[in-house]
Amino acid sequence: MIRLSGRLRTATIIGIQGIRARKLRTFLSMVSLFLGVLAVVVVQAGAGIAERLQLADVELNSGVDGSKALYVPSMTGASQAVADTVRSRTDAVGLFNLSAIIGEPGVRPVNEGGSPFDQDWGGGNSQICNQNGCYDPNEGAPRGQAIELRLTALTGDVRPFRPYQVKSGQWLDFGTAPMMAPRLVLNEEAAKGFTRYQVPAEMRVPGATANLTPRFVGVIKDGDASPHAYLRLDELTSWLPLARLGDPNTMGDIQVAMAAGTPVEPVLIAKLTGLGAQGLAAETINTRKQMKDQLNLLRLIFLAMAGLVLVIGAAGVLNVGLATVGERIEEFALRRAVGTPRAVLAGIVLAETLLTGLLTAALAIGLSVAGLKVLSAVLGSSEPFLQNVEFPWSAGVSGIVAGLVAGILGGFVPALRAARIPIATVMRA
Question: What is the DSSP-derived secondary structure letter of residue 142?
Answer without folding.
Answer: P
